[in-house]
Every structure is written in C-alpha cells, then in structure tokens.
Amino acid sequence: MKKMILCLLAVTGAAFSFAQIPLTMLPDGGNKKAAVSERIGLTDVTINYDRPGVKGREGKIWGQLVHAGFIDQQFGSSKSSPWRAGSNENTSFKFSTDV
C-alpha cells in the first residue's frame, strides 16, 4: 500500500511539474521576432514585434487595405477587436522618457 501511495505521489508531482512548462517557455513557431530601436531627441524608442511567415501570400496579405478601428474578425471570441500587428504577441512600444 505504501508503494502505491508513493508511486501515486510521484506521478502527481511529475504531472504538476510538467504542466508548468508551457507557461515558462517562449512560444515557438516559424514566426520571426524582431526589434527596432532609435533615439529621437533625448528619447530612446524601442519597438518589439513578431513577423508572421508569409509563405507565398505576399499579394493576398500585404498591399491590401487593412481595416482601421474595431471589427468582428469572425474567429476566436468573435467579438469586435482591433487589428494587431504581430503574429504571436501584440506589438509593443517602449519609451525611455515620458512622451
């Protein structure tokens, strides 16, 4: 009986430790992460963004009008949401001073 309880505790502990892995690992995928930094006056501006893999869809994605404001994109939560630049994460802007 003690061996069964010990085995059950070991399996439960392993399950809890492996369940945390996706929360601590960076998202992988074929998408390219990029950053651009520039000094404008006294302020350093950094833009972090993810670039989606276009894979031969240049004429279908880029060069067409992208909506402005909120729109129901017909997937996910199917609620009105803004278009976001980036594939895995939202684009972020960081300023070294108040702007």
Description:
This protein has three helices and five strands, in the order ααββαβββ. The relative contact order is 0.17. The protein has helices at 2-19, 21-24, 58-61, and strands spanning 32-40, 43-51, 70-72, 80-82, 92-95. By secondary structure, the chain is an alpha+beta fold. 26% of the residues lie in helices and 28% in strands.
What would a concise description of this structure say?
The protein is α+β, with helices and mostly antiparallel strands and 99 residues long.
- Going by helix content, strand content and strand pairing, the class is alpha+beta
Poorly predicted spans? none
Broad shape:
elongated
**Count of domain modules:** 1
Sheet with the most strands, sense and barrel status? 3 strands, antiparallel
Main β-sheet, spatial strand arrangement: 1-2-5
The end-to-end distance, rounded to whole angstroms, is 66 Å
C-alpha Rg (nearest Å): 22 Å
Task: Tally the helices.
Answer: 3
Could you give the count of β-strands? 5
Describe the secondary-structure layout:
Layout: H1 2-19, H2 21-24, E1 32-40, E2 43-51, H3 58-61, E3 70-72, E4 80-82, E5 92-95
Antiparallel strand pairs: 1-2, 2-5, 3-4
